[in-house]
Design brief:
Length: 613
Amino acid sequence: MTLAEMTGITTIWTLIFWTKICKTKLAPQAPTIDVCYAAVMAAERAYALFFLVYLFWGSAPQPRRRWPPMSRYSDQQLHHPIEIYVGEGPEADRFVRRLNKELLRLMAEAGQAGEQEPERGQERSREKDQELQQARRHKPAELSGWLAAGLKPLPEGAAPLRMNSGAQAFAARSAAAAARRLSLAGLVPARQGKRRDGYRRRFEVTVFGVRAVHTAEVGGVGAGSSLGANAGAAGGVGVGQEESSQPDSPWHRRLEKLAVKALYTQGLDFGQVTLEAGDAGWEIARMTACPAFRTPEAARAFAAAVLETAEGWRAEAERGAERLVNGRSAGAVGQAEDPELFGSGSGDLLLGMDPEFLLFDPGAGKIIPASRFLSRTGAAGCDSVWIRGRRRFPLAELRPDPAGEPKAALRQLMGAMREAARQIGDAPLAWLAGGLPQPGLPLGGHLHFSGVVLTPQLLRALDHFLALPVALLEDSRSASRRPRYGCLGDFRRQSHGGFEYRTLPSFLVSPVVTKGTVALALLVASVYKSGALPEVPPLPASALEAFYTGDRTALRPFALRALEQAEALPSFSSYQLYIDPMFKAVRSGRTWDESVDIRKAWKLAGNPPGQRA
């Protein structure tokens, strides 16, 4: 209600009040007052009718003011680094109001911190003053269901990071379809509408990107809740006092992993997940794309994550622009410009890996622990698994130094492989790679990235361009490792500041697969890092079903489309020599055989299995 409306209502009620006073006090001496009183009472009734109509129509949600497309602001230094989809409706309105409030508060604090920052021996430079004024002007902007934010604008030509583009598809998805996606990825959806007995611990986890920004425990007893996008609070569950868990606690890490994975399966980049302790472990009771901030701390943590991600994306775009300028300058003075050389700076892209393999004795028909030949550390070592509650070291693992281009990365890998061959010697053992060459011991081909911002978009791109084509090449027994191992979007943050992509099986099965995987991973990451990677939508339900069940026929159209899109990426020609043989194998329908000793393909010295030195 506006100030003018409130003033008008106050005036009308004051006039009615004083007219009634006059009617009571002056009617015997002034009969003409009756006429005035009748007129005022008629006005009162008309106003009462108007007021009821206003309450009914005026309280309905009104459409929010829409901003023009963000591109119109590019000339006014309002090109925000991040755009998040917030949608429509009352729930989205509440989310936007709370988030906007905290974003503005954090941006104001950032400006004040900049003002108080002391200069060492000199006054603040004009450039720093301009940056401070720019941060004050750079307020969040809302446009057509999207909210754009950031402390500073993106450099010219850089594309913003768009988050939660899959929220509309999630909103239209049925509860059964959402539950199926969770089940395929190895998660347990809560049983719908089934009464639970006893007290069950419930946690509400708010996620942005690949991190849980806030975790709170809520308690209750009762019926199941809905997995649908428009579900309200869990039915029959009373919300207790929130207790945020410690970020470094095992509880937080476990809940974070489950919540991030649940949202990723639905194609969401942020949201809120309610987890409930059930008979089969943790169950997903509810998911929503618009978090309900129960406390100011939750809203503030979410806003801080938005600005942190925006600043990381903006800084990466600026470094990319600087590399482009430096590359052009180098070309101008006659130096060769190589788009693959990323390994010369602290923020440059590097790729490491730790593919695994097994040592198998065909004569005895059993696995020989790698710990008999290899130590736990070094470029060629052994890795552990838990078997019947005991830690064993049956896996051999190669750990080459990271590199920024395919040739160097493969050179490092070959060096680690030769070191393994030297330590294992002429033992008549078969080296087996792939996904599941022997029952009970799944193998992984984990890729380590550094110098690139980790977002769900990057994970989705790696799934699309890497995991789908590799799945077509797999031995038929390899798919049975999923979903416990090799889920789409599986990652682990590393202490060096990068992350480990854990979806792929061991690609050591052949040089063709290894070269193609390494080069394709560097291509996707470098194009993503430069901001030129097209947005990869979440996989449809049919593709997910085919991937997790190992249905190569159903998966083939999606993988072939990924090959075509990869060949259209910028700089593909720089990596084509390494990638083309693998793409030809995918298109021809070939698969690898996980029972074959990989040493022959890699031309490693050693006695064949069954022969003694």
